[in-house]
Amino acid sequence: MLRLLAFLLALVLAVPAAAQLGSGPRHMGLALVAEGPAIPGQEVELALVMVPEDGWHGYWENPGDAGKPMSVAWQLPPGASAGPLRYPVPTRLIVADLMNHVFKGPYAVLSRLRVPADASGVLPIRATLDYLVCTDQVCVPERGSVVLDLPVGSGPTDLRFDGWRAKLPQPLGSPGTFAVAGDRLQVAIPLPESVAVTAPYLYAITGDVVRYADAQAFRRTPDRLIAELPLAQAPAAGFEGVIDLGTGRALRFAAAPGAVPEGGSTVGGGETWRLLLFAFLGAVAGGLILNLMPCVFPILALKALALARAGGEEREARADALGYTLGAIVGTGALGAVLLLVRAGGSAAGWAFQLQDPRTVLLLFLLAVAITLNLLGLFKLPVLGGEGNPRSGFATGALAAFVATPCAGPFMGAALGTALLLPAAGALLVFAGLGLGLALPFLLLAFVPSLRKRLPRPGPWMARLQRILAVPMALSALAALWLLWRQGGTSAILLGLVSAALLAAALLFAGRRQDAGQPALSAPVVALLLLVAVPLLGIGRGEMAVTQRGSAGEAWSEAKVAAARAAGRPVFVYFTADWCLSCKVNEASTIDREPVRDALKAANAEVLVADWTNADPAITRFLDSRGRGAIPLYLWYAPGAAEPEELPQVLTPAMLIERATAARR
């Protein structure tokens, strides 16, 4: 009743402007767009793009105590049908003690269009929208029409849809339960303990059940998030809602009458700090372990030489270590900041996103070539050559941060996933923690005299070590070149080799000038270095070599997983990338071994490969839904199980063989 009275009041206030229902200036911009062309017999995503005027707002599907949900009347070609409207997560607005669920800025409401199997030419899509648009003082009911002539067969793809989909609440596969307890509605939402929750709020889709403006309370058990909602009237049957976890992530769920667990810990303001502390410590530990990973080993040459040159001198060692630490922290922090900006722009991206771009891989390849030549003594570059000073330490630390990103997944998956759900300041602190962990051994050697005294004295061995360590650096360059080929095909590898040849010529010429006591830079050296950058402008995806996978499995999609599970088959999904060294180790040591493949085949298991070598928004969104910011990720769907089992990030053949054998029984 309160909601009805509030709506009637809004209409009374709107009487002078009511004529706008059919004419006059509108306060809401409207557009209808499609993600891509129509494919006969398939579906295409449509978006109703809503742009309220400054100071005005539109309403969510359940507007709250006041307002009116939008209604859409479609006019579609014969055989076509539009699916339900899917709204982004709203914000809350309280006016005169009335709770409103609103959108104050531009937003998009999505719907799936089913294309007729015999569609051809152009499909005329029309829709009439009736909606309410309001300020804090006045509401105006408006009506608008949108038109879209959708081509069938081929056409461009609208990249904005990835950003719009990222703002939708993710559907929760497992049902919840609810029960009435006095004047409260208790709703138990299935949620693993590993999923971050900071400042939750529940938006009820089912209308007239809760008192929207009253306070909500939340508690948590190991596998449930329980909402305590002020009750207006008991739900007649089911209850649906959207739970905003307060981390930039929301879940849409459905609940049926049932038992709600007692007890649990209260979810409040301290939860954010606990999550931040967990993620930061996890990042530091992950960075510490990264020092042992092969993908970081090539730059250990620079660290070892810097420490050796510092010798037992305390001042030089500490200055070098502090420079290295600052470089590592700035490096990981900068990568994290760019990642946050990319995601804020609506793109689906995860950790090591930069290695999904062939231009970045080419840059990494050229950097490895340059350091290899430096370690071989063909030219001298003090900043990156291992000199024991803060400038060299900073450059080495920044390089370590850049090279270490693809190896961070096995040790940082949970921490990075949590970081991407935290506010920006907290996320940057977690990324900085990775750099601190990476630099921690160096700091200990510099600031603990007993450890520093164990370092060998400088001598001729340093030159020999420098040349020996050029070998793994050269192998690192070859690995980057292979990845460049996988991403861009033959054209990319040719551009990479041309760039490397130009770079080598420039550095060799500079080295000869250094040997002669002349400045390294000259007009020919600068010209060659400028030519090196030219391929960075033209390199692309080429023949898309990476899209071709071996016989280990088919390309992953959520639809394939659902189809295999519906047929009662076990499913094994592994998320990998060509730049992920630990992924490749697991594939060689476990997944691609003949006994494992035979066991999976005997169990009639569906093996699916989610290849993240190139940016893939679908994979990124799925990783986000699992609270993961990095790979590898291995999932085993046992027949009949409600949720997949997340396997360890270091696999053994026995893990998969045992599960495949159990699935046959």
TrEMBL record:
Give one GO biological process term: cell redox homeostasis
Q: Mind telling me which Gene3D superfamilies this protein's record contains?
A: Glutaredoxin
Q: Where in the cell is it found?
A: Membrane
Superkingdom per UniProt: Bacteria
| Matches recorded under Pfam families | DsbD_N (PF11412), DsbD_TM (PF02683), Thioredoxin_7 (PF13899)
Query: What is the membrane topology listed in the Swiss-Prot or TrEMBL record?
Result: Multi-pass membrane protein
Task: Please report the stretch or stretches of sequence annotated as the Thiol:disulfide interchange protein DsbD N-terminal domain.
Answer: 34-148
Q: Output the PROSITE patterns linked to this UniProt entry.
A: THIOREDOXIN_1
Q: What is this protein called?
A: DsbC/DsbD-like thiol-disulfide interchange protein/cytochrome c biogenesis protein CcdA
Q: List the InterPro entries.
A: Cyt_c_assmbl_TM_dom (IPR003834), DsbD_gamma (IPR035671), DsbDN (IPR028250), Thioredoxin-like_sf (IPR036249), Thioredoxin_CS (IPR017937)
Q: Where is the signal peptide?
A: 1-19
Indicate the transmembrane segments per the record.
Answer: 275-300, 321-342, 362-381, 393-414, 420-447, 468-485, 491-509, 521-539
